Amino acid sequence: MLGKSVLLSLLTLILFPAFSQDKKDDKKWDVANPEGNWNFKEVQLNTDEGTWMNLDVSPDGKEIVFDLLGDIYLMPASGGEARALRSGLPFEVQPRFSPDGKQISFTSDAGGGDNIWIMKRDGSDVKQVTKEDFRLLNNAVWTPDGNYLVARKHFTSERSAGAGEMWMYHISGGTGLQLTKRKNDQQDVNEPCFSPDGQYLYYSEDMYPGGFFQYNKDPNSQIYVIKRYDMSKGETITVTGGPGGAIRPQISHDGKRMAFIRRVREKSVLFVHDLQTGVERPVYDDLNKDQQEAWAIFGTYPGYNWTPDDQYIVIWAKGKIKKISVASLAVSEIPFHVSNTIKIAEALHFKNKAFDDLLTSKAIRNAVTSPDGKLLVFNAMGFLWKKNLPDGKPTRLTSSADLEYEPSFSKDGTELVYVTWNDEQLGSIYKFNIKTRGARPTKITTEKAIYRTPSFSPDRSKIVFVKEEGNDHQGFSYTKDPGVYWMPSSGGAMKRVKNEGEYPVFNLDGSRVYYQTGGYYFGELTKALKSVNLDGLDERTIVTSKYANRIIPSPDEKWIGFQQLHKAYVAAMPHTGQTIDLDSKSTSYPVSQFSKDAGISLHWSSDSKKIYWTLGDEYFGDDLKDRFKFIEGAPDSIPPPDTVGIRIDLVVKANVPSGRIAFKGARIITMEGNEVIDDGVLIVYRNRIEAIGRANEITIPDDAKIMDVAGK
After folding, report:
1. Closest CA relative to residue 514, chosen from 491, 498, 526
2. pLDDT tens profile 12-55
3. How many angstroms separate the CA atoms of 117 and 106, rounded?
4. Which of 122, 126, 113 is nearest to 153 (CA)?
């Protein structure tokens, strides 16, 4: 996690390949002292309660350390005034005493990303132990000898939230040693805890059926279990689980019992497990809701611990610190008070109107440029539009009521081919003569289907396209035999080329078809560009890429445009008879970034000398000679990528409902202080509230449609 003053989304260091002309910016961001005009203000914090507080009891039983709002505090074990050990903009949590009580470990992003740090018990002599810059760490615990820390290391892949592994680091630093291996990139491990003799490492692991993260998991079946890793043998067993799961293990100091948390119906309940007999009993059922159903990167429940005599468990719940007698189940509160001055950055504010009469489209998709470079055709708000470049006013391409998508120009620029969708008639492919005044679209398919991404052959005699399998939005009717197809551009029989693939295009002479496999943003982690002949034979894999989302060969087959982690690049396309690994950092062939920021709708000019893309409501184009010095006509120095493109400026009237509606009998909570109207009437005319008040005060117009909402 980043500093709590602001989410800093642009911390990624972009490493340009050898062929790039840009210099690397080595300046490091200081989380504690960020550059820029942040307009910080100091706020006085006075509180005796807190949210999601990790805590630990010192080995001598005299003090409690805890986190609150990303700062770390120390106070007497009996409660009282807390003293800040770590305070400031960095987000610092999860404090844990060392076995001798002289040091405290914690998670901090002060170094630019979540890592494990240590400090003396009084907050002095602060040191960063781990220095991960990508696979970040949290939830550290000490080994009983005090020489190592074991923490949860976070791994991401196709899904941003990812999963964890247990890694061990010496307190002097280093790259660490892996203890557990994640079974996939979706199901997590978390919350390590050592047995007092150091033989076993306990932790929680997501074991929900399916092998991937799900949003609708049932916490009253089993999500997490607690596992035990043998530090001598490297073997792992399951200690407990079952209905309600088992999370956040904490071993008693005598090593005989394990506290953990389980969901019991709608409650998160603290249990104690006898490690010799396996007997489990609940000891406290008024915890806050645990996070078993969620991605709990920082743990499914805040850290807690036993008192040194193992008679009590000290844990955060409902804003307070609770002390629970394991024998009698008596619960007392350990009072605390925090007084601190914290810095908060003024939030970024924009004035937004509730409604504007005119709407400017910000989402420009499926953009294609005519071969002569004079016309842009794109999708916005469900239809195709055309814009004369650079300053023309966008207008509808057709007057059809069907949704229109994914246009593509013929090589000579005379025709467009695109797909449509109608919930009753389903999908079709149309072509349109862009040069003929008054021309009407011609439907060239006769079969209902979900059609995608049609494209002309170089001689305009054929089109290649995708018939898509069904989905939950468009249904599953008429979706048999999906795959890549071609057909005459005048209409006629369809011939399936392959039963896989997306974004098909013909090669230079029209004898083969290129297509992409692996999906787009989702799907397989590794994408590939393949080609086959028109019979679907002689398959060749041209390139594969682990991080590219979209791969687009140039018309002359000498270049590849691609998106990688949202940014747009272009690379030479060497034909070696072998598969090339495509990556933005490759030094095996020329490659260059041509979008300063992200880019979508990548497409080539007909002569393969220029590439185009869009971002938001802006349109960009870049010549290859401006990215590579070896191309004839290149400038003496390569200019930086453009940051300002051509505005599309598609402005339409905003939709406004017609008529008047009266909601009658409602219980209305107004914004006038604490006013609540129990038997109210609310009248809406078009898109505005026209009147609101008690039933005996409001006259309902005769033209209003009345909705009785009594009891609502």
Report:
1. 498
2. 322 223 333 344 455 778 899 888 888 899 999 999 999 999 99
3. 5
4. 113
